[in-house]
């Protein structure tokens, strides 16, 4: 493959960037990742992407790979929101070049670290990231439960207002609780669903109901390592929604809620992500 140049993503026609993303993720590890053009802005917002800080590898005027950046000033970090390459561009050096550019620009911006999430089973991507100095912070597991558990609780918490829930989550870094971006307010606000939030003691849960009678847990955080309050919140879900299955995506840290899910009989999903970080001196 001939040479390429790296350009700012914001200078590219959004339709062309969306088309490159669709082509790059057509053979994704967990299945084709297809987004309608109308869903593209919401996806970028969910990932926290800022196109001004994102870059695209272009060859003969056409995008062949991309690195979408999500600065996280609240954690003094830049997150690699998503990176991909068209099948024909893989192995051409575009991905390493984009990653090196991402790290260099984050370092020039003076942030303390760069971070990303990657499926543990995506060995090719992991080799690239680990070869550039990224190391595991934690595993991020997904969970599911068919519902109808005997572990229900009659103590149903009163709903809390979303601004209050988001403020509580926003205070977690100051409390020493590190969270991946997609369970934090910046990402949750971009979800196209009606969110509900409950809190008990040191724990909080943010969830939604879907049309297929399934509950989606978008954020479960317990600041107490014992996770008794998280367990009580999930038990309350069983009681309030006895006929609905519960799904937790692959963003759940074991130390802030995962252990509670496991103790209540949730099944761990086969694929999981690794949360990786590289300090920048």
UniProtKB/TrEMBL annotation:
Residues 4-163 form the N-acetyltransferase domain. InterPro entries: Acyl_CoA_acyltransferase, Bact_Acetyltransf, GNAT_dom. One of its GO terms (molecular function) is acyltransferase activity, transferring groups other than amino-acyl groups. Keywords: Acyltransferase, Transferase. PANTHER family: AMINOALKYLPHOSPHONATE N-ACETYLTRANSFERASE-RELATED (PTHR43877:SF2), AMINOALKYLPHOSPHONATE N-ACETYLTRANSFERASE-RELATED-RELATED (PTHR43877). This is GNAT family N-acetyltransferase. It comes from Ramlibacter montanisoli.
């Amino acid at each position: 493959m001939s040479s390429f140049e790296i350009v700012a993503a914001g200078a590219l026609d959004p339709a062309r960037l969306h088309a490159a993303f669709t082509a790059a993720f057509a053979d994704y590890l967990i299945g084709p990742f297809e987004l309608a053009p109308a869903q593209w802005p919401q996806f970028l917002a969910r990932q926290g992407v800022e196109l001004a800080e994102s870059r695209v590898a272009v060859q003969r005027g056409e995008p062949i790979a991309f690195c979408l950046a999500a600065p996280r000033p609240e954690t003094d970090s830049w997150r690699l929101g998503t990176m991909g390459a068209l099948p024909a561009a893989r192995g051409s050096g575009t991905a390493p070049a984009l990653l090196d550019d991402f790290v260099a620009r984050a370092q020039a911006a003076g942030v303390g670290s760069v971070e990303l999430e990657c499926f543990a089973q995506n060995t090719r991507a992991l080799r690239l990231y680990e070869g550039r100095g990224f190391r595991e912070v934690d595993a991020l597991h997904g969970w599911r439960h068919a519902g109808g558990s005997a572990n229900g609780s009659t103590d149903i918490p009163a709903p809390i207002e979303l601004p209050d829930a988001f403020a509580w989550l926003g205070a977690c870094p100051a409390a020493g609780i590190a969270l991946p971006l997609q369970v934090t307010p910046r990402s949750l606000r971009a979800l196209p669903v009606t969110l509900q939030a409950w809190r008990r003691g040191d724990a909080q849960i943010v969830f939604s109901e879907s049309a297929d009678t399934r509950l989606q847990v978008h954020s479960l955080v317990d600041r107490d390592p014992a996770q008794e309050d998280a367990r009580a919140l999930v038990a309350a879900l069983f009681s309030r929604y006895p006929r609905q299955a519960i799904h937790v995506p692959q963003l759940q840290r074991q130390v802030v809620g995962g252990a509670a899910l496991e103790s209540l009989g949730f099944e761990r999903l086969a694929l999981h992500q690794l949360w990786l970080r590289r300090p920048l001196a």
